[in-house]
What does this fold into?
Amino acid sequence: MNKQLFITIFFLLGLTGCATSPYSFSPPAVDLPKQFVERQILVTLPNATKPQWKQLAKLIAQDYDLELSGEFPLTSIAVNCLVFKTPEKYAIPVLLQRLRLDSRISWAQENLVFDGLQADADKVYTELSYAPKLMHVATAHRLSTGLGVKIAVIDTGADIKHPDLQGQIITLSNFVEGGELSFSTDQHGTAISGIIGAQSDNGIGIVGIAPKSELLIMKSCWYSQQTGSGAKCSSWTLAKAIDAAINKGVKIINLSLAGPYDKLLESLLDTANQRGISIVTASLDKSSKPGFPATLNYVIPAVSSDPKGAVILPEWLSKLPAVVAAPGIEIVATTPHGKYDIMSGTSMAAAHISGTVALLLGYDPALKPETIKRLLIEDSMISNQYRSIDASRVLVNLDKNNLE
It folds into this structure.
């Protein structure tokens, strides 16, 4: 595989501060999944032209000298998405301008790359997990365990045979070419799944924030064996996963990732929000910008707090109306092969927040995304000072409000 190709594909697009813990598993048979090949663009066709979709795909390929790489419907926003490989002779920004002026096309954009946000793992294990104690999860579970709340973990795959995850996962989906080969040995998704929904009554490992919630693992991110970098996702894989999550009726979407602005993904997330789905996202805490989709006004952007509940404030904080803080530093998390490790990053903070959202919805299923976001912001920010959310405190305050 050409080294320059990987450098180009996995260039961080101006984003910094993303690394991953060491992991050990056999590399997938596919060197580079088709969803991550360079110089690909996404073109959407409106539902009104559905009878002509196949013909239009051929005509657009011919008219612009493009090679069709893939095709998939996004039923939640009623479009058909075409993936084209662009010849080297074209400057992609110029080509996109031409395509956007084509009356047959709804939208055209690059197939962008997103990063799973996880900092380097520590080499020493802690004996006890501090996050559930800091968030008073045991007390919160007297009011809610997130029973039956469906959460889409749009991430890498996960170790579904992990002792803390057995019985917690109801659906598995893979949107990465060849991704099924490494699905159960993927580290990032295993960690996020455990933080959200690890069993609470098995006497081992960690306690999930919402142990009775139902997890849908949707693999949209992939590890490059050649570069050794963190998990990567693309517009192509994420669009398919978000569309599937909406159609499966989830109540929460966890996106422990960040990247450049993406209009296609924004359209899908807008639809998710309108259908009453709470969206929790990581943010770039070591960058001058929070990253997308944390910038969308209806999502719940996560920042990290440390073992004492103190918040590590990013320099871009003034650019967002509000964020929510949760444990994200030195978190004991589930890892493949039934093991545990210590991890850090806003990905972990997002998972703790998603679990707390599930507790709120388990207590009151009628809560709307805007209400949930307000409750979490009010708990995380006191007198313009941020602190880690407390799951028990949020639920108790909600309980009091309901009784008044």
Remarks:
- The chain has two domains: 3-111, 115-403.
- The longest strand covers residues 67-74.
- Confidence is low (pLDDT under 50) at residues 1-30, 120-127.
